[in-house]
Amino acid sequence: MSEFILEKIFEKVDNLPPFPKTAQRALELLREDEVDYKSLEEIVKSDPAIAANFLKLVNSAAFSLPQKVDSLLKAFMLLGVDQIKFILLASVSGKYFSKDLTGYGLSAEDIWLHSIVCGIAAEEIAHELKLSVEKKESLYIASILHDLGKIVLDLYTNLEEKRFHQISEENPKWDFMQIEWLALGVDHGMVGGYLLKRWKFPEEIYFAVRAHHDPDLMVQSKVSAIVALSNIIVSLLGITGGVDAFNYKVPENLLEVSGLDSKTIEKILPRIYRRTLLLGRLFV
Ligand SMILES: [Fe+2]
Ligand SMILES: [Fe+2]
What we know:
- The chain is an all-alpha fold.
- The protein has helices at 2-12, 21-30, 37-45, 48-58, 72-78, 81-96, 108-129, 133-144, 148-156, 161-170, 176-184, 188-198, 203-211, 222-236, 254-258, 262-280.
- One fe (ii) ion binds at residues 114, 146-147, 231, 241.
- The site of one fe (ii) ion has 5 residues, from loops.
- This is HDOD domain-containing protein.
């Protein structure tokens, strides 16, 4: 049944801008051993919305640059490759998260902030676990775009927030994934994963997005476990994904599969919290 519903939704999805070529080309350049920052500047500048978001984010205290910058090139020089990638992906997501998602009870700013902070949580975890450059890139993409499916469902179905509340009241023991299935015949993780697969992202990435609320799937790889865990951390900080308010099942071995223990979580939580506060000033 879900395949049929997905097909119906994706018949309309061509209106959604594809993953920007700008970001794809910039990421390719950033994989080179010697990065050509002048060319990178040209590429990022070619998309004014991404360039503006990049400068906005880079000047937020969350990324702790020693000085304010008004040029992309200067920012690149002051940031490491890893941070450039992260901020670039966060800037790209701003292009998608630019409309209120009324069905999910989210303003455009809420969902963008939720996505960036999820990326920050994943970034801090990746740093703590000393993950490889490739794993970090997959994690950044999957965590920042994990709720992409909400945009698609909000745009292309007749979704109303009150319908979610009504189902939840009638079925108080259900988690939000079950509620979404009754309301829409699909859940936003599945839709986001399907879209990223269509955009030809690596399986590691679209699987993590697909799995981020599914307790059986999320523990099948380290990347999917970390994305799911980062989303939980963001919700614990009170930056929820809207109407779902983190009403989901969490498997017992999530921490273990992520490669973390509760002591490490206690260590990194304040860092994520502090960076979120610094970032939050951008959105008020
Ligand atoms: Fe989600
Ligand atoms: Fe989320």
